[in-house]
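in:
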């Protein structure tokens, strides 16, 4: 089969005049589907009306070395080559030309008019509406004590916001980041490959979504307070507007962003999926942690899908994240998400009453160990 794929790709590439790098993930996915489809057809054809027990490798090698086998290989090669060429002419060539033209003469950026807002969303409204609300309603669990919760239904617009968290300029910037991330989120949930810009937009959204969270904002301001007090005095250092201005400088610090994002980018990405709605969205948005000295990120996307940057290092990104479905792993992640919340979280209406959670860091370590074991088994 390798000779079929190699030769068909060789013939195809001889006809390619232009190809944009952003199409690499899509084409890789097409190649995977081609290989799987051909393998299935070969097995089906070679086992038809035959007892599988009687088939030997020697017999198969002899068949493909025969005139009949060589003709089959050549015919299959041409079918694949022509199918790819047709798809290239219809989709990949025009998309490549369009992207290259846009890069050569990019459109002038539209002028943005920054709106004045009173309420700042630290959990994007579009995420709540599209992926967590049921008929416009959220199921909210408010903490009574460590392991007890008050559950009630609220409108999706009633949760995930506070007044005067950020400046209008920063709020506008967050809106742009959310807009850039909407399509990558849809694709990653649909197990569709992301190109490099989409991958970076998705990761940027996750990082910024954590940095903008009130819990992280509060921790950063408290951490900086001794320094700012020494610089400007106690009164000014405790001024809410001054604290906001200091906090917002982190979104202009590219070095800080790289220190946070780079380990997450070059960590093996995993999508954990379940049939039952066991994942929750905490008011902290996601979890940052470490495992074996490596940064990890756990970010629930829907009640049945959770993204994990696992801390398992890699040097080349996979076209799509690893897909895992494991009940124990899902339960451990769910408990860690609940343990991470400050005051409340939202869930699907069919989410069971939360059990005792345990310590967040211990649960995260356990989840990472399970992921490592499952990935090793898969390989």
């Amino acid at each position: 089969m390798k000779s079929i794929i190699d030769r068909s790709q060789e013939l195809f590439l001889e006809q390619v005049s232009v190809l944009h790098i952003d199409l690499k993930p899509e084409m890789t996915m097409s190649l995977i589907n081609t290989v799987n489809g051909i393998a299935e057809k070969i097995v089906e054809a070679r086992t038809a009306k035959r007892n599988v027990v009687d088939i030997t490798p020697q017999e198969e090698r002899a068949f493909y070395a025969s005139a009949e086998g060589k003709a089959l290989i050549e015919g299959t090669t041409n079918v694949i080559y022509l199918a790819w060429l047709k798809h290239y002419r219809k989709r990949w060539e025009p998309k490549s030309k369009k992207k290259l033209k846009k890069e050569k003469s990019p459109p002038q950026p539209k002028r943005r008019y920054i709106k004045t807002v009173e309420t700042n969303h630290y959990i994007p409204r579009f995420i709540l509406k599209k992926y967590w609300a049921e008929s416009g309603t959220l199921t909210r669990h408010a903490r009574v004590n460590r392991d007890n919760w008050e559950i009630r239904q609220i409108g999706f617009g009633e949760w995930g916001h506070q007044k005067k968290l950020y400046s209008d300029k920063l709020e506008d910037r967050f809106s742009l980041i959310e807009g850039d991330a909407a399509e990558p989120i849809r694709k990653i949930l649909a197990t569709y490959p992301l190109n490099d810009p989409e991958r970076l937009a998705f990761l940027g959204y996750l990082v910024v979504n954590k940095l903008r969270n009130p819990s992280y904002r509060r921790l950063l301001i408290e951490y900086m307070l001794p320094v700012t007090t020494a610089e400007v005095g106690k009164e000014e250092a405790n001024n809410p507007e001054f604290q906001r201005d200091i906090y917002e400088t982190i979104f202009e610090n590219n070095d800080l962003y790289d220190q946070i994002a780079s380990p997450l980018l070059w960590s093996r990405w995993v999508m954990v999926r379940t049939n039952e709605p066991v994942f929750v969205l905490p008011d902290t948005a996601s979890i940052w942690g470490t495992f074996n000295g490596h940064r990890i990120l756990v970010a629930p996307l829907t009640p049945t899908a959770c993204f994990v940057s696992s801390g398992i290092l890699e040097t080349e990104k996979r076209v799509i994240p690893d897909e895992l479905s494991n009940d124990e792993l899902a339960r451990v992640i769910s408990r860690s998400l609940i343990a991470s919340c400050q005051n409340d979280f939202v869930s699907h209406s069919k989410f069971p009453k939360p059990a005792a959670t345990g310590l967040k860091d211990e649960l995260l370590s356990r989840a990472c160990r399970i992921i490592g074991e499952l990935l090793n088994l898969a390989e």
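note: The chain has two domains: 2-104, 120-378.
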